[in-house]
Amino acid sequence: MATASNEFKLIGPSGTEQYNRSAVTLSCRLYPEISAVNMEIRWFKETCCVCVYKNRHVTEGRGYEGRVSLFSQEMERGNVSLQLRDCTESDFGHYLCQVTDGDRTEEITVEMCKCS
Which residues form the Ig-like domain (predicted)? Predict the structure, then answer.
Protein backbone atom coordinates (compact mmCIF):
# COMPACT_ATOMS: atom_id res chain seq x y z
CA MET A 1 0.00 0.00 0.00
CA ALA A 2 1.43 3.39 -0.96
CA THR A 3 2.00 6.02 1.70
CA ALA A 4 0.28 9.35 1.07
CA SER A 5 2.60 12.32 0.93
CA ASN A 6 0.76 14.04 3.76
CA GLU A 7 0.93 11.19 6.29
CA PHE A 8 2.56 12.30 9.52
CA LYS A 9 2.17 12.12 13.28
CA LEU A 10 2.91 14.66 15.99
CA ILE A 11 5.44 13.81 18.65
CA GLY A 12 5.47 15.75 21.90
CA PRO A 13 7.71 15.66 24.96
CA SER A 14 8.28 12.32 26.67
CA GLY A 15 6.63 13.56 29.86
CA THR A 16 5.54 16.71 31.64
CA GLU A 17 8.15 19.38 31.08
CA GLN A 18 9.33 21.84 33.72
CA TYR A 19 9.57 25.50 32.85
CA ASN A 20 10.83 28.79 34.08
CA ARG A 21 9.02 32.07 33.55
CA SER A 22 11.44 33.75 31.12
CA ALA A 23 11.07 31.47 28.08
CA VAL A 24 9.14 28.21 27.79
CA THR A 25 9.30 25.82 24.84
CA LEU A 26 6.36 23.47 24.30
CA SER A 27 7.94 20.69 22.25
CA CYS A 28 6.14 19.34 19.19
CA ARG A 29 7.60 17.74 16.04
CA LEU A 30 6.37 16.02 12.92
CA TYR A 31 7.18 12.35 12.43
CA PRO A 32 8.56 11.45 10.01
CA GLU A 33 10.76 14.55 9.91
CA ILE A 34 9.10 16.38 7.02
CA SER A 35 8.82 20.09 6.29
CA ALA A 36 6.01 22.01 8.00
CA VAL A 37 6.71 25.24 6.08
CA ASN A 38 3.60 24.93 3.89
CA MET A 39 1.32 23.50 6.59
CA GLU A 40 -1.10 25.28 8.88
CA ILE A 41 -0.11 25.19 12.56
CA ARG A 42 -2.42 26.23 15.39
CA TRP A 43 -1.68 26.32 19.11
CA PHE A 44 -4.54 26.60 21.63
CA LYS A 45 -4.77 26.87 25.41
CA GLU A 46 -8.18 25.47 26.26
CA THR A 47 -10.48 27.41 23.89
CA CYS A 48 -8.11 30.37 23.42
CA CYS A 49 -6.05 30.58 20.26
CA VAL A 50 -2.39 31.20 21.18
CA CYS A 51 -1.08 31.51 17.62
CA VAL A 52 -1.73 30.48 14.04
CA TYR A 53 0.91 29.87 11.37
CA LYS A 54 -0.49 29.99 7.84
CA ASN A 55 1.03 31.01 4.49
CA ARG A 56 4.42 31.47 6.22
CA HIS A 57 3.00 34.08 8.60
CA VAL A 58 2.38 33.87 12.37
CA THR A 59 -0.69 35.55 13.89
CA GLU A 60 -0.64 35.88 17.68
CA GLY A 61 -3.77 35.36 19.73
CA ARG A 62 -5.25 37.97 22.06
CA GLY A 63 -3.19 38.21 25.24
CA TYR A 64 -0.19 36.52 23.61
CA GLU A 65 0.99 39.46 21.46
CA GLY A 66 4.78 39.76 21.56
CA ARG A 67 5.11 36.66 23.76
CA VAL A 68 4.88 33.74 21.33
CA SER A 69 6.98 32.49 18.45
CA LEU A 70 7.59 29.39 16.39
CA PHE A 71 11.00 28.13 15.30
CA SER A 72 10.61 29.16 11.66
CA GLN A 73 14.18 28.21 10.74
CA GLU A 74 13.54 24.66 12.03
CA MET A 75 10.13 24.09 10.38
CA GLU A 76 11.88 22.56 7.36
CA ARG A 77 12.89 19.72 9.74
CA GLY A 78 9.39 19.32 11.20
CA ASN A 79 9.83 21.39 14.36
CA VAL A 80 6.47 23.03 15.19
CA SER A 81 7.30 23.77 18.84
CA LEU A 82 5.90 26.89 20.49
CA GLN A 83 8.01 29.31 22.52
CA LEU A 84 6.21 31.37 25.13
CA ARG A 85 7.94 34.25 26.92
CA ASP A 86 7.19 36.12 30.16
CA CYS A 87 4.98 33.36 31.57
CA THR A 88 2.42 34.06 34.26
CA GLU A 89 0.38 31.72 36.46
CA SER A 90 -2.45 31.80 33.91
CA ASP A 91 -0.15 30.34 31.25
CA PHE A 92 0.21 27.00 33.04
CA GLY A 93 -2.04 24.20 31.82
CA HIS A 94 -2.70 22.10 28.74
CA TYR A 95 -1.93 23.29 25.21
CA LEU A 96 -3.17 21.76 21.99
CA CYS A 97 -0.98 21.74 18.90
CA GLN A 98 -2.93 21.19 15.68
CA VAL A 99 -1.17 20.74 12.32
CA THR A 100 -3.08 20.63 9.03
CA ASP A 101 -1.70 19.57 5.65
CA GLY A 102 -4.39 19.59 2.97
CA ASP A 103 -7.30 17.54 4.29
CA ARG A 104 -5.28 15.84 7.04
CA THR A 105 -5.15 17.24 10.59
CA GLU A 106 -3.17 15.83 13.51
CA GLU A 107 -3.18 17.14 17.06
CA ILE A 108 -1.41 16.54 20.34
CA THR A 109 -1.74 17.97 23.85
CA VAL A 110 1.31 19.28 25.70
CA GLU A 111 1.21 20.16 29.38
CA MET A 112 3.02 23.12 30.87
CA CYS A 113 3.21 22.81 34.62
CA LYS A 114 4.93 24.76 37.32
CA CYS A 115 7.09 22.14 38.96
CA SER A 116 9.33 22.80 41.92
Answer: 22-109
**What per-residue confidence (pLDDT) applies to 22?**
80
Longest dimension (CA), the chain: 49
Q: Which amino acid is at 69?
A: S
Q: CA-CA distance, 102 to 88, in Å (whole number)?
A: 35
| C-alpha distances out from residue 75 to 86, 89, 93, Å | 23, 29, 25
Estimate to the nearest angstrom the gap between the alpha carbon of 74 and the chain centroid.
Answer: 12
- List domains and CATH numbers for the chain: 9-112 (2.60.40.10)
Contact 81, 29 (CB under 8 A): yes
Tell me what the mean pLDDT of segment 63-87 comes to: 95
Amino acid making up residue 104: R
Q: Give the global pTM.
A: 0.89
* pLDDT top residue among 36 and 115: 36
